[in-house]
Amino acid sequence: MLQICRFFQPALGPRLGAILDERVYDLTATGRPAFASFNIWLSWAGQQGAAQVAAVLADATANLTPIYDWADLQHQPDPARPHLLPPLDAQEVWAAGVTYLRSRQAREEESNKIGVYDRVYEAERPEIFLKATPHRVVGPHDFIRVRADASWTVPEPELTVLLSPNLQVVGYTAGNDVSSRDIEGENPLYLPQAKIYTRSCALGPVITLAADLSGPVEIELAIQRAGETVFAGQISTAQMKRPISELVAYLGRENEFPHGVFLMTGTGLVPPDDYTLQAGDVVEITIERIGRLVNPVM
Predict the structure, then answer these.
(1) Residue 227 and residue 108 share a domain
(2) How many CA atoms lie within 13 A of 221 on its CB side?
């Protein structure tokens, strides 16, 4: 299975890459206009059928020599070393909330059971909100952050959809919607402060093409602290209340995304109420047929 990534190459900067059999290929080096940047590739891919996108990528990699092993990029960002970047360029990240029953329960509990989230779960219109602008997003092995004014912060692992400017589903990645539950729980109107801040969103490690991911997938969350696993859980996207097509349709109502957009589809994995992220923790999100997104906490 061929997947897409962005990576940093010293002296050359950001590159569009393909991953195949644990090898990294530099698509930008082909000189093909469609691979000049992630933005350009996404716009191009949205105009093609899924089969055509896969065929062109396969042809491009067939004429390239891999430049790295996948393992060579698995470390914290360092300008002196090749490393992974978040798989986005100018795209905003939006999110859907209360799409799993467990999420409804958790958010009702944190808000002292005022009924808002019960109503959203049953409503025709889903909860959709802006999660991050590009500069607030980090990639694999980079630091996510806890707000200094929050006392209860959790990771939220989410299947994340990549949409082209014409809102075609191009692929999927793993996302971490880091959230300050105490701030949102105090008042639902504080949701932007609980959700949108520097390093509150992580994406990666790759984009799995839409043609290679159909049907439900398993999502796993593991949190390490001082070498010990303090939380581990698993859920299937089969438990989502709303189909992705419905969430995409609502996202696109009265809205335009000239560079394309990411849509996080909600979480069904919630650590217990006595857990909060701390500096030094490591969050691992694994999604079937996508890969593992690893982020330390600062």
Answers:
(1) yes
(2) 24
Per-residue pLDDT of the chain (298 residues; tens, 9 = 90+): 999 999 999 999 999 999 999 999 999 999 999 999 999 999 999 999 899 999 999 999 998 999 999 999 999 999 999 999 999 999 999 999 999 876 656 555 665 555 677 788 888 999 999 999 999 999 999 999 999 999 999 999 999 999 999 999 999 999 999 999 999 989 989 999 999 999 999 999 999 999 999 999 999 999 999 999 999 999 999 999 999 999 999 999 999 999 999 999 999 998 998 999 999 999 999 999 999 999 999 9
Considering the domain architecture, whether residues 136 and 280 belong to the same structural domain is answered as yes
SS3 286: strand
For residues 78 and 98, membership in a common domain is answered with no
- Could you count the other beta carbons within 10 Å of the beta carbon of residue 282? 17
- Is residue 276 classed as helix, strand or coil in its secondary structure? coil
The verdict on 33 and 107 lying in the same domain is no
d(CA 202, CA 174): 8
Q: Cα–Cα distance between 212 and 172 in angstroms, integer?
A: 9
Q: What single-letter DSSP state applies at residue 107?
A: H
Same domain, 53 and 107: no
Q: Measured in whole angstroms, how far is the alpha carbon of residue 177 from the centre of its chain?
A: 8
d(CA 145, CA 267): 19
Spell out a b/e string for 53-82, using b for 16 or more CB atoms within 10 Å of the CB, else e. Answer: bbebbeebbeebebbbebeebeeebeeeeb
Residue 240's identity, in one-letter code, is: M
Residues 69 and 99 in one domain: no
Where are the alpha helices (H) located in 63-175, listed in sequence order?
A: 101-110, 116-122
What residues pair up with 127 in beta bridges, in sequence order?
A: 97
* Global confidence as pTM: 0.95
